[in-house]
């Protein structure tokens, strides 16, 4: 028990944090999870070592990171609130803790670091000219991690398309394409048919991080990778996979009601976020994974039909 490497996970109850914690636990790592309700969470998941604290509190993160070889920074301000105020201080807390304890940082990247000038194929060195305030903050976050690598804080950053999968949290699949807990009679399309879009199955993202972590000594101090994930070349591959998961030959589609987004945005922060990210659905979007394949040989990838069926079951859309 004491010889197993310890990983501190910030955001263990979230999508990527939770998925990565499970994969690393299965690989023999000890998982310490920082949570504001740590004592209560320990009853639900005793496999993790839960520590009471807040990722927004530098002292809490510093103390929780003691003895850790890596810190998973999978946390964001709750409810899309106070991004400008909290996102950068939180990564600063993780960087400070990593530096003090000799840990490396595992960081999920986002596609909204990029503006249309970088489309349709995003590479690790594509220009980051974000169109939104949230994107601009994420650019600064990556810049801080890259700067920290120069004084010894190593980082593995993995960027992927839109997440889907079990316990993936807020995502386009569960909140745009289908409605959780309800029979599927049609699929809503955020983009136009024929427009390619990048998707990433969350367990594949977690597996990619885990494999890269095991190769960490051979990676550069700031190692940034892109996952190709599942590229829906005509905008309908997801529809076909959903239909197959339902045991149907085909299923009706309808356009996502973008007109309602600005109406609801003043009252629901999620819709404000959706509106700002609409540009990502107005042109083809694909990620180049050649750098990742150079490091791992192949990108971990669950077959799309299997990934979609598992997701539908987790959303209680099929039995």
Automatic annotation (TrEMBL):
Residues 7-215 form the NAD-dependent epimerase/dehydratase domain. InterPro entries: Epimerase_deHydtase (IPR001509), NAD(P)-bd_dom_sf (IPR036291), NAD(P)-dependent_oxidoreduct (IPR051783). The lineage of its organism: Bacteria, Pseudomonadati, Pseudomonadota, Alphaproteobacteria, Hyphomicrobiales. It comes from Rhizobium oryziradicis. One of its GO terms (molecular function) is aldehyde dehydrogenase (NAD+) activity. It holds the Pfam family Epimerase. One of its GO terms (cellular component) is cytoplasm. This is NAD-dependent epimerase/dehydratase domain-containing protein.
